[in-house]
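HUMAN: Ready with one sample?

ASSISTANT:
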Amino acid sequence: MRSGRSSSRFLGVARGREWFAGTGSGSHSGVTTVEIGVHSVSRMRSRRMLVVSIGLVAVVVAACGGVAESDTSVKASAVAISFGDFVSKGEVTYPDGDRPAPLVVLVGGSGPEDLNADDASEGATSRGHLFADISSSLARQGFAALRYNKHYVNGLGEVDPRFATDLTMTQLVDDVRSAVRAVGNDPRIDSRRVYLFGWSEGTTVVAAAAQGMPNLCGVIVQGAVGIPWRDGLIAQWERVVRPYLRNFAVDGSVGAAELRRAWHGDGGVVAHELVSVLADDIESEQSALNPAFDIDGNSRIDLDNELPTAAVKFVDEQLAGGIFHLYGAPSTLPDVSAQAAALRDIPFLTLHGENDSNVSVEAAIRIDKALADNGSRDHTLRTYPRSGHSLSEAVDLQHDPIGPIQPQPLADLGQWLRNHEQR
């Protein structure tokens, strides 16, 4: 899920409170950490199914992907990864020095994403290079990072047609394992110390790939899909689109003119993209309402009596064979909460923005609870107020730009990794 403007505002007050529970013994420390921001958590949503971001680190980061040229502490090299019927271009970012570094493998979200977690579709606007910034930050903190183009993605504006027809979720799981093997002999990497990091759709992928993976030391998820796919997709309309459209509605409904204003308004990525579904040629003065949403045919969409019903039908149709077919197919992956039993013995970090427009913060809480209920003794949940799907600043759910990741989550990620390297 993705896109991107910037905010460098430091999330000092977002650190919230932290609770520790459990001691226990065994291969991990038995520490359970739950960090909830200063605001109460009460919302619901899933799927980033449209978004990405960039990062602004407390130290200097590259302005548009990759390593900052002036930063000699960070090195990078290209890598080719065979996915069987496709060769993916990737990049390993690593700290300067002679000592092999633990590896963090970054797995992106929905849609045709490139190695920076940018939407590679022709003309896409959600290009915040989240993974480029995370990679640079990790290298500065002593970790190698591997990121790669998604299966059938060659680069920005270069997407193989097979992406829309042949890709499966199980294939994406195999790709993670192929990526780890591809760098297994790199002398700059400690292949005995591997972590998986998933964002949005990628959270379900890393949860599945982690099961049985040798030398795995932990899993990190951001903007995680923690509720069933269908529930999350429907929730986007209730949590984001309907409240956003109320700002433009006349007597509780919208017509083509109001939708054009909403389209040109200041809504975030999810609001903007789903509003475009409601009218054909929405930017034109001649735009017409999508008849599937104008149920009574009066050239208005009632936000209370038509939109909810039509949105559910739209989601179901797209899951059955449309743009969300990956999540409706028999080969789709369960949400992360549903995979918790198989993850109970793996150290687990969940990062989530409380104003995530794609996936509700309650989904993250659900994941953490599922891990606890299944006996996990090393799971950490951190949430961030006024932060969206990419952990950029987001003033509310309707205005989540999925922009640059803020410094605090990057610092928290590095600290969690260092803590686990000391065990």
User: Anything to note?
Assistant: The chain has two domains: 75-228+334-421, 230-320. The chain is about 30% helix and 20% strand.
